[in-house]
Specification:
The protein contains 22 helices and 20 strands. By secondary structure, the protein is α+β, with helices and mostly antiparallel strands. A hairpin with a 2-residue loop joins strand 7 and strand 8. It folds into five domains: about 130 residues; about 140 residues; about 100 residues; about 70 residues; about 140 residues. The longest helix is centred in the middle third of the chain and has 47 residues. Strands 5-4-3-8-7-6 form a six-stranded antiparallel β-sheet, sandwiched between helices. A five-stranded antiparallel β-sheet has the order 10-9-13-12-11, sandwiched between helices. Strands 15-17-18-20-19 form a five-stranded mixed β-sheet, covered by helices on one side. It is a multi-pass membrane protein.
């Protein structure tokens, strides 16, 4: 081939073509050669990823080296440029064939450029250029192969170190040990991991390892923080004097090169790894590439170790939850079972199995219709299907089993996946036989109470009315002596009080039975009803002074009997607790939307501790009341004010109380003319 090229060159020289030195041509046409080579490389990589900006990183230096070797011959010493070029291509994921193709394209571009410039190399120049290029190619390929072999061996050792799935506590130290043993110039190395807002040294080997472990830094602090912030490798030439170094172990006297690499899992930053040397100011490109590659692999191992730790923790939590669930299912008296979409038993406790009459183990994997009584299958399978298809629960379905005196209540709820799909259903069954018996007893008690209410409402009122009528007739007799007339008055007072007590008891029973107090609203004059009620009260208490005042428009829609009952209870309360020589004042005032009723008496104020439960039924007198008051007031059932609050509430009104020693006690009742204004006692 060379003889042919020599003849071609000789022919060009004979035909007038200019001759030149190959080294001079390369220096003069370096830019054109590099442009031709870059276009050729892009065409060579058609269909592959676009070439990055570092495509020409070492080529200008390699061309200069090629020219120097042509000038000075084979004794010219090669620089580290071919090694660096090989490592950059290895780091970029090139294979050996692609590296060789780069140089083959370079050789072709040089020759094509010579033809394009009509340049004829001097005799022997072309051969020297070929020899020099072969030396560079050999050096690059050898460095590439050695670097790849070194990386593969280190990665294999890292894989061996992680084969037994070590914990997060031991794995980083194993990986760092492999690193230090793979690079002779490395004296120490460490992993600094992100933990919340801090960086913590979690693994260290080599010099100062014991002092480094557990040291914590802020995320943006020093050299370590700079590596994480830039998310790029970073080199220090003299760590012991560099102001960016804050880790005490990196400030050791005599420490030179430090090389840090971020640990990235996609966009997630796990931390950084660094290696140090006392002998080198800068780590070689093969060592740096090895460290970067091992850091990437270490990141993958760390992520896997974290995932395994989380998986183990999740498995342990699940096992613990299942154990707790099994213990709960075994101890609960409720029957509990879980069925899949095909109505096969997935889980069942002993209580549910006892209802079916089979062991829990016999249920698992079997269909509901195979294990349940025939009568239950027809009843429950449609409900099961509806719950699974619609996802709607079914609650409180009562059933019995032939031959079993017990009564059961069942509920069914869908079992959902996180995305709301229905996996199956859960069933709970409870024995409600005791409750059914209690309901029967309660119903009998209610029936008895209703009969008792009928006795109080009718059978007692009739003789009481007869007594009251007879006493009234006696008061009209002129033959009664003063002691006899006082006795008749006491009879009339007692019958009136008994009538109010019976009414209060009947109303209390209605409220407790849930029906509420019946209210028949009708047009009425509030003042007239109150005045008539007071006239009746004056007859039963002639020795007490009752004062009445009315003002404004007092017409509206209320129940006159209930209004009279409220006023009677409030006045009776005022007479009972007020001073006997002072009047009880009743005022009625018509306002825009309501009528306000006030009942006032003087005397001992209501005790503060009684105020919160003043309207409660059957309330007791405060312990500080004088003995004579207790004896007098215990005759009341304590229902009067409770009935007042219920009647006023049924009318949509409210009751207010003000009581003190200077101004006495005043009950204020607000009666809305309509039900549009709601209130509470």
């Amino acid at each position: 081939m060379l003889e042919t090229e020599s003849r071609t060159a000789g022919d060009k020289e004979a035909s007038g073509a200019r001759t030149l030195k190959a080294a001079a041509f390369l220096r003069a046409h370096q830019e054109e050669v590099l442009e031709d080579w870059q276009r050729a490389m892009r065409a060579f990589h058609v269909g592959h990823a676009a070439q990055p900006s570092w495509l020409l990183d070492h080529m200008p230096q390699l061309l200069n080296m090629l020219a120097d070797i042509i000038d000075h011959g084979p004794d010219e010493i090669l620089t580290t440029v071919p090694d660096e070029h090989a490592m950059s291509r290895l780091d970029a994921g090139f294979d050996l064939g692609q590296v060789a193709s780069e140089y083959a394209l370079l050789r072709k571009c040089i020759l094509h450029r010579m033809e394009a410039e009509a340049a004829c190399p001097a005799p022997g120049e072309l051969e020297r250029m070929e020899d020099a290029l072969d030396r560079i190619v050999t050096r690059t390929v050898t460095s590439f192969s050695q670097g790849r072999q070194r990386i593969l061996q280190a990665l294999d050792r890292m894989t061996q170190a992680a084969l037994d799935s070590p914990s997060m506590a031991s794995l980083p130290s194993r990986l760092l040990t492999v690193l230090v043993e793979s690079a002779l110039s490395v004296d120490s190395a460490a992993f600094v991991l992100v933990e919340g807002d801090a960086l913590v040294v979690r693994a260290a080997v080599g010099l100062g390892a014991d002092e480094a472990l557990g040291v914590s830094l802020e995320r943006e602090e020093g050299f370590v923080g700079e590596v994480l912030r830039q998310r790029q490798p970073l080199t220090l030439r003299s760590a012991s004097t560099d102001p960016r170094v804050v880790l005490p172990t990196l400030k050791q006297e005599g420490l030179r090169a430090v090389y840090g690499v971020p640990l990235l899992d996609g966009d997630q930053l796990l931390g950084m790894a660094y290696m140090c040397s006392r002998t080198a100011f800068v780590f070689s490109e093969p060592d740096a590439l090895l460290f970067r590659t091992m850091a990437q692999r270490a990141t993958a191992h760390l992520v896997q170790a974290r995932l395994r730790a989380r998986e183990r923790q999740a498995h342990a939590d699940a096992q613990r939850s299942l154990a707790q669930l099994d213990a709960l299912l075994a101890s609960t008296p409720l029957g509990i079972a879980q069925l899949d979409r095909e109505l096969r038993f997935v889980r069942i406790n002993q209580a549910m199995a006892d209802i079916d009459g089979h062991s829990p183990e016999a249920h698992l994997g079997r269909r509901f219709r195979e294990m349940a009584p025939v009568t239950a299958v027809g009843t429950f399978e449609p409900l099961f299907r509806r719950t699974i298809e619609t996802g709607e629960p079914v609650d409180a379905v009562e059933f019995t089993i032939p031959g079993d005196a017990r009564t059961f209540q069942a509920s069914f709820h869908p079992v959902r996946t996180p995305d709301q799909g229905v996996l199956g259903l859960s069933c709970t069954v409870v024995d409600v036989s005791h409750h059914k018996r209690a309901e029967a007893v309660l119903q009998r008690a209610v029936d008895f109470r209703e009969q008792l209410m009928a006795v109080l409402g009718h059978d007692l009122r009739n003789p009481l009315n007869a007594i009251n009528a007879s006493a009234f007739q006696l008061t009209r007799s002129e033959d009664l002596t003063p002691p006899e007339r006082r006795a008749v008055d006491r009879i009339r007072k007692a019958t009136a009080r008994m009538g109010r007590m019976i009414t209060d008891i009947l109303d209390f029973a209605r409220t407790r039975l849930g029906g509420g107090l019946p209210v028949a609203r009708q047009p009425m004059d509030f003042a007239e009803v109150c005045q008539a009620t007071l006239e009746e009260l004056r007859v039963s208490a002639p020795e007490r002074s009752l004062v009445f005042e009315a003002s404004g428009d007092t017409r509206g829609n209320w129940d006159p009997d209930r209004v009279s009952q409220v006023l009677g209870n409030l006045v009776a309360n005022a007479l009972q607790h007020g001073q006997e020589d002072r009047p009880v004042c009743v005022t009625v005032r018509g306002e825009a939307d309501e009528v306000v009723l006030k009942v006032h008496n003087t005397g001992e104020p209501i005790a503060p501790e009684l105020m919160p439960r003043l309207f409660d039924p059957f309330k007791n007198m405060p312990a500080t009341a004088p003995p004579q008051d207790v004896a007098r007031k215990k005759r009341s059932l304590g229902l009067g004010l409770y009935i007042v609050s219920q009647i006023v509430g049924a009318h949509g009104g409210r009751v207010e109380v003000r009581s003190n020693r200077d101004q006495g006690t005043t009950f204020t009742v607000h009666w809305p003319r309509t039900l549009t204004t709601l209130g509470g006692a």
